[in-house]
Amino acid sequence: MTEAIVYEKIGDIAVLAANNPPVNALGLAVRQGLVEGIERAEKEGAKAVLIYGEGRTFFAGADIREFGKPPVGPFLPDVCTRIEASPLIVVSALHGTALGGGLEIALASHYRIAVPKARMGLPEVLIGVMPGAGGTQRLPRLIGIDKSLDVITSGRQVGAKEALELGILDKIADGEPREIGLAYAQELIDANAPRRPVSEMPAPAPVDFDALYDAVLKKGRGLLAPAVAVRGIQACCELPFAEGMKRERELFGQLMNTDQRQGLIHAFFAERAVGKLPELEGVAPRPLNAIGVIGGGTMGAGIATSALLSGLKVTLIEMSPKAAEAAKGRIAGNLQGALKRGKISPEKFEELTEKALTLAIDYEALKDADLVIEAVFEEMSVKKEVFTKLDAICKPGAVLASNTSYLNVNEIAAVTSRPADVIGLHFFSPAHVMKLLEIVVADKTAPDVVATGFALGGKMGKVSVRAGVCDGFIGNRILSTYRTCADYMILDGASPYQIDKALEDFGFAMGPYAVADLAGLDIGWAVRKRKRAEGVDPRARDFTYADKLCEDGHFGQKTGMGYYDYSAGPKSRVPNPEVMPLIEADRAAQGITARAFTDEEIIRRYMAAMVNEAAKVVGEGIAKRPLDVDVTLLYGYGFPRYRGGPLKWADMQGLPALLDDIKSWAEDDPYFWAPAPLLEQLVTEGRNFDDLNKD
Ligand code: 3H9
């Protein structure tokens, strides 16, 4: 008997307690332990078997770390079959999160009970696979096609109450899983309850699965797994159980071999690894109860909203009582959204807006704040003025943070007498919705200030990524480069509309020009003006159409016109007829003859520009690891999750071919396409980006 499953016999009940922290993943030792436990229970004359998990959860699924390695038996589907085939009554008692293979173990049991707070689901599609241990064969037999289609293709977690209503659970009871499970098993023994294998229940009648497959594929915007899972449900309805299990296994195997599965699992582990940094080991964050926010525009109000929702007291500084009132309105509006979605109660809304939030126009109000974030106008002189004032007023040890998205945090820190307390906290707009937080560590930032940044991100439910100081940090620096690549393709003959379409087909939530319209074209215009003032390298190609568009007053969605015409609403996206003539004028002025681009070339160039800049960002230490870049692009820039992030994508494409492309384009434009030294080094050494994640 392995220790991952602890066996015990209590009266007529054999108890199999899973003990594989942290989440009781169904690794080899657990699978072996379950089979051995069932066999021993049968040998020892038990009448029932109880399966439950020690620690925080019932099984949270197959052990994802085993994916991609040669599988070793007993395999999970066989474990489930063995459990269900037992002549004893098998009961699963659920708590925590019974997910994937975990729920499949429960479905193979004859009865299911859970604590009220338990959650369950089949989230396999979210990591690029599908239920592979009978989930698509048993769930439809238990709850029908429509409901299982929803649960399986969304991958969502279902609370115990809903699970009882759906028919996944037989019972909910308060208490420890072991106690409620033992009581239920005894009750079943006393009632002489029969075994109740789900596989012997009739399957639902088939429906038009081709139509369902198409609909699910379309909804997934390129994501394969949910659509393939539909074929599993189809097999449940059209084949005998054992045949259905075989078909499910085949489909599972097909998905296991896809790049999408690799990309999604990379994303899963990468988002958990971003906060694990050697420099933070053993470093305690500073106290964090009350924060200050300077500036109550869209960004400041979003940050304040997020802080309030995470339980912090917030003092927001504005320039005038009128501006403060407007900021309060914005925050209340954001919180109304949370109220409508049922995230907070009306009482909580009242408490957050009236008690936890203070508005002020005098910086004195910040003297007790543990951390202050400025979200004022993006200009160095303005930032310096703010930090000089903060330095004079804030208490010793207070963290002074800038929400700058491009500016040099070292220069900002230098105006204070305490640069060790200064850090960049780059939120993304709208800050109460977007999950990404770039934590920008300046030369003199103290480790416990970095830890405090991560602690703030954690409280707010953000995915926080450490970045170093450079123009644009990780995300905006890479964005500038791939946007420039797109702009050059436009000069050479592509249109913004073809580029947007190609990239949306690739899987981006929005193409770069639709994104620019949403963010406001004035932002990019201001950056271009600043860079020109600082001095642009004469080798860089230049263009004017984007500036002309702004000079004509077209700032995107907020003015109703940008690359697209939004007069029929924000989603209408009709090309603005003024754009192409501006582009053509630019081409004519530069003597460029437009050429045709295929969608494939657009993607190849755009992605190569992104990867090349990302490799520079990693090579220079701005991002500590390739996975930090991947998570930044996934959470802040709409990068398709199923492609894992730009550097995981690059690994899967093969770095040598990518470098060859870059070198061939560098023949025409050596300045823009200068290969990243790190990319060249990896190709020479026959390594890839993921190898650096493991170093
Ligand atoms: C499946 O079941 C396939 C079957 O149908 C068929 C097979 C044939 N494996 O997220 P946390 C680690 S597919 C290995 O920070 P939380 C995680 O990396 C699977 N490791 O905690 C982390 O490690 P570390 C279907 C796993 O409380 C630690 O556990 N199941 C697994 O915020 C704590 O995790 C899923 O997709 C795993 N399955 O959230 C469930 N799960 O401490 C995926 C977690 O070293 N997991 N770890 O960083 C989750 O959704 C969340 O982790 C969970 C806990 C909700 C369970």
What's this model, at a glance?
The protein has 695 residues and is an alpha/beta fold. The protein has 29 helices and 19 strands.
User: With helices defined by DSSP (H or I, 4 residues minimum), what is the helix count?
Assistant: 29
Strand order of the largest sheet: 12-11-10-13-14-15-16-17
The mean pLDDT is 96
Q: Please provide the count of β strands.
A: 19
What is the terminal-to-terminal distance?
36 Å
Q: Structural class, judged by helices and strands?
A: alpha/beta
Bound molecules: (S)-3-Hydroxyhexanoyl-CoA
Radius of gyration: 28 Å
Query: Poorly predicted ranges (pLDDT <50, ≥5 residues)?
Result: none
Strand content: 5-15%
Shape: globular
- The helicity comes to 40-55%
Major beta-sheet overview:
8 strands, mixed
Could you walk me through the main structural features you see in this protein, from its secondary elements to its overall organization?
The structure is a single chain. The chain is built from 29 helices and 19 strands. Helix 5 packs antiparallel against helix 9 and helix 12 (298-309) crosses helix 13 (321-340). The chain is 49% helix and 12% strand. The model has no long low-confidence stretch (mean pLDDT 96). It has 695 residues and is α/β, with parallel strands linked by helices. Strand 1 and strand 2 (13-18) form a beta hairpin. Bound molecules: (S)-3-Hydroxyhexanoyl-CoA. The site of (S)-3-Hydroxyhexanoyl-CoA (3H9) has 23 residues, from strand 5 and helix 3. (S)-3-Hydroxyhexanoyl-CoA is lined by residues 22-23, 25, 60-65, 76, 97, 99-101, 104, 123-124, 127, 131-133, 135, 272.
